[in-house]
Amino acid sequence: MAVVYRHIRLDTKEVFYVGIGKTVSRAYSKHGRSKPWLDLIKNRNYEVEILFENVTWQEAEDKERELIKLHGRRDQNTGTLVNLTDGGGGVENPSAEARRKNGDAHKGKPGWNRGLTKETDSRVADYAKKLTGKGRSEKHCNNISKSKVGKPRSVETILKIKAAKLKNGTNRRTKESIEKGVLTRLANGRNKHSEETKLKLSKARIGKYGGGNNPRAIAVKQIDKHTGCVLNIYSCATDAAKATGVDNANIRGACTGKYKSAGGFIWKNTTKEEYGKYRLKKDNE
């Protein structure tokens, strides 16, 4: 599936770009844009308008060609668009034949290591084989492994480390509790939590700080783009994204003013009090 979108200048209300993408997020992305597009938005704000969603790739290409022809291209002095093609040039999933032709077109061209002799190229390849982990040499990794081999820490060592981390003035009861916890984890193997304890910790955290339960969560309002009516109020952008399918980052961007809209809606931050009143009203209906 694909989407068709267009970009509109806020100062003149002119359409300056028409494009297509596999997802809605492509309409809001600045990655891979042409130089004329980047030059035009450098000191200007613009609005993203989603024209068609959930259409086939072929339908999206046809719509793109139609809209580019309607608005006209700036480089051809026929309109306001900074598009450099007549549209429909994108390929959603190249065929085997297209891949073969693309490969043949690049045969014989110098690669990234152009200018290197065979001897230098061989040395680079040999060195790359020795690298492991985060760019560390094989010798360095072996030394790290040797340093970790040996007896596990003793109870006395662990208690000393724990005691050093304790703040001054810790009472005896707290120290005894810490020592008991250390001994219990050592009994379960190398100072690790037991499977039962891990399960309890996991259950205790489920839903505790996610979504609207997060103390720092900010409620958001979903507003109709055309009528200005409030369609819904969510406890946070995460819950709004789950309910509407609009990207979480795009909703936050619209709330902060980075984007004019997201997913075809206007989004605004609101207070938890307003969200609570809205939910109470909905529950009583």
Structure, described:
This protein is an alpha+beta fold and 285 residues long. The protein has four domains: 2-71, no CATH class; 118-152, no CATH class; 155-205, no CATH class; 215-284, Orthogonal Bundle (Arc Repressor Mutant, subunit A). The chain has helices spanning 25-28, 35-41, 57-71, 96-106, 118-130, 138-148, 155-165, 172-187, 195-205, 237-244, 248-256, 272-284; strands spanning 2-9, 15-21, 46-55, 219-224, 230-234, 265-270. It is flat and about 85 Å long.
Number of strands: 6
The tally of domains stands at: 4
State the end-to-end distance.
38 Å
Fraction of residues in H or I helices: 40-55%
Q: In percent terms, what proportion of residues is strand?
A: 5-15%
Shape: flat
- Our Rg estimate from Cα atoms comes to 30 Å
Secondary-structure-based class equals alpha+beta
Mean pLDDT: 78
Could you list the spans in which at least 5 consecutive residues all have pLDDT below 50? none
Biggest pleated sheet: 3 strands, antiparallel
Number of helices: 12
Main sheet: strand order: 2-1-3
The helix/strand order is EEHHEHHHHHHHEEHHEH
